[in-house]
User: Which sequence fits this backbone?
């Protein structure tokens, strides 16, 4: 038997479902109309915007020249500010003009690069369908990024070169700085392991000996001892030779072999990964 109460409950459930379905249909129709209006508004605006960007893109090559020269221009400006008192006074007077709006000349030199990066962000977030404009802006932005990386790498190489005393040359075309740190060198004849500084580059591992603390602001100075080329180098972890935390790395070069120890397991793993990656990405012929 089916009671009147159960029939009434079933009807109420159906009514609720019909009401819910009607509300969802109405809401979806409203969203659809809003989206159509959005497409109409955005496409009208973006069509004009995109046309303007497409007309501007053929002139973006001027930014390439500016980007390639920005660090040299900044360096020349620093030299003149340091050596030329009259130029320093002239620069200060010009920057005091109201149209400078409290900006320095150094800040304004960076504005074209900042504008390109901003343009890329706007296009990426809003106008991703402008393929031509996106391609051109991305090319210049990539050039900016590459120049920044090259400049930062050059600064690292110069820093390491200043730390070294002696004939070991660090500055070289195509060389990239990777990392540095202290590692204990394990001698072959059972003597105590001695800590020495190692500098890892994209093509070599430089072993340096500390020459003492010269000055609190200058830090340590080093004497370059050995430069090991990474070409044909084999790096391996050696297990079971240290009772404490850490471990050993075995580096086999064509004309030498190194056994390096660290009591820090994480640091040792980082060295292993860095060395392995540098060796893996070496060009086949050098």
Assistant:
């Amino acid at each position: 038997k089916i009671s009147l109460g159960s029939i009434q409950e079933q009807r109420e459930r159906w009514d609720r479902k019909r009401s819910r379905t009607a509300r969802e249909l109405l809401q979806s129709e409203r969203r659809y109309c809003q989206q159509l209006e959005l497409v109409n508004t955005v496409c009208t605006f973006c069509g004009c915007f995109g046309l303007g960007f497409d007309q501007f893109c053929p002139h973006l090559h001027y930014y390439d020249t500016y980007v390639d020269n920005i660090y040299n221009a900044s360096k020349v400006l620093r030299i003149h500010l340091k050596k030329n008192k009259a130029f320093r006074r002239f620069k200060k007077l010009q920057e005091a003009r109201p149209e400078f709006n409290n900006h320095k000349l150094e800040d304004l030199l960076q504005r074209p690069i900042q504008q390109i990066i901003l343009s890329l962000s706007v296009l990426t977030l809003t106008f991703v369908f402008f393929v031509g404009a996106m391609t051109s802006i991305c090319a210049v932005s990539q050039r900016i990024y590459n120049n920044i990386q090259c400049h930062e790498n050059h600064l690292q190489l110069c820093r390491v070169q200043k730390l070294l005393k002696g004939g070991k040359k660090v500055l070289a075309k195509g060389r990239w700085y990777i990392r540095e740190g202290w590692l204990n060198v394990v001698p072959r004849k059972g003597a105590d392991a001695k800590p020495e500084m190692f500098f890892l580059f994209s093509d070599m591992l430089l072993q340096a000996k500390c020459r003492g603390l010269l000055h609190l602001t200058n830090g340590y100075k080093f004497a370059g001892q050995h430069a090991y080329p990474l070409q044909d180098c084999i790096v391996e972890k050696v297990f079971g030779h240290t009772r404490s935390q850490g471990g050993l790395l075995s580096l086999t070069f064509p004309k030498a072999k190194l056994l390096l120890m660290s009591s820090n397991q994480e640091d040792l793993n980082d060295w292993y990964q860095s060395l392995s990656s540098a060796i893996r990405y070496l060009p086949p012929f050098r």
In short: The chain has a mean pLDDT of 78. The chain has two domains: 14-159, 166-280.
